[in-house]
Amino acid sequence: MRRLLRPLWVLLALIFLVEAWLWDRVEPIIARVVALIPLPRLKAWLADRIAHLSPALTLIVFAVPVVVLFPLNFVAAWLLAHKYFVGATILIVFQKVLGVGIVAFVFDVTRDKLLQMGWFRALYTFVLDLRARALAIVAPLKLAIQQWMARFRRRASPGFIRRLRRRMQASR
């Protein structure tokens, strides 16, 4: 049974790691955007308001971006139902990047208050542990791919790679 479930666990780990990777990549970009726009004042204002809130009310502030972006799921589903696959894909990717960015921004401001709640701290620790486990599950697959790529690069002559690139460019 474990052998049958192994591919499912690897797939779930990969999905989780893609989400974590997106979070890691988008959060610094959002931080740069915040630095360019006069949003530090917004962040300071929001942090000041949150300082006066209870942790439970801070959780509501943290949930607002998710609630605001949720209707885009219905629009994406409608687009998929009407076979607008490209538009749906663009909307889903846009929503994912925007959502992760906004949630990362709001989480940065609300983290300290949220971690005051025992159940949230336990959930946060669980997610961090889950991420470490997902990395451990995917590590052998990642290592195998890296080894395969290294063997391919060693075997492939520089001329072969140049010819392959030319063929790919010519086919465009």
Features:
172 residues, 0% strand
What does this structure look like?
- It is extended and about 65 Å long.
- The model has no long low-confidence stretch (mean pLDDT 81).
- The relative contact order is 0.11.
- The protein has seven helices and no strands.
- The protein has 172 residues and is an all-alpha fold.
Topology:
Layout: H1 2-36, H2 39-51, H3 55-69, H4 71-81, H5 85-114, H6 118-155, H7 158-171
What is the string of helix and strand elements? Answer: HHHHHHH
State the distance separating the first and last CA atoms: 46 Å
The percentage helix is: over 70%
Strand composition percent: under 5%
Mean pLDDT figure: 81
Strand elements, count:
0
Question: Could you provide a short overview of the structure?
Answer:
With 172 residues, the protein is mainly alpha-helical.
